[in-house]
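QA checklist item 7 of 12: single-chain prediction sanity check.
[x] sequence parsed
[x] length recorded as 224
[x] structure emitted
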Amino acid sequence: MKVTIQSILFMLILPMNLLSQPDVPPDGAAFDHEENMYYYRIIGQQKWLIDNINSQLLSDKSPISMIQDSLLWSQTNSPAYCYYPADRLDRCAQGNLYNWQTVNTGKLCPLGWHVPNNAEWQELADFAGGNEIAGGKLKISGTDVWMDPNTNGSDAFGFSMAPGGFRTETGQFMGLCKTAAYWSADASDENNAYVWFTSYNSAYLAKDTCDKKNGLSVICIQDK
């Protein structure tokens, strides 16, 4: 690849998780309604953001409620986000945690992008070799970010999945450095929606359901 001033500057502004994966440079960048920049990667026939969403606004510029208090978090049925308390922030935290009500607005991702549904998550898992090994193929490698042993973490496609943890429906923060948990756009019933996750001690990319009041990471896929 020809080295230019532009390519050097591009590398200088890469987030740290990409700098740890120099063999798989990003394919480009997208911007949300706050002008936050997110890198994306083409994986198979899909184009995925590889940075977790960090927006405080929906695409119509309406604010998302920031709720750190556990009781208020457990009581809200409106779009809300939170982040790990300052005394618990470390190398593993990446992006905000959102309840499913925020996802359900359809206005969280950058324009031209959306929260992936179960079929799109499954297509990614299939491309990565199947659910049994896809988590390992998608995780950042090594134990600088993931807790040891980071089972089979190889980041084979540059997806750079990070263990941002989650927040329970009762407001407890859990799983930082241990679990990467992402919302699906699909609900399972009135109170629950689907989540896709992997952990530090597994290579499995699993699908499950959880309460819509949970706070999970959000990553986006480009519209077709």
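[x] summary fact logged: The radius of gyration is 17 Å.
[ ] second reviewer sign-off
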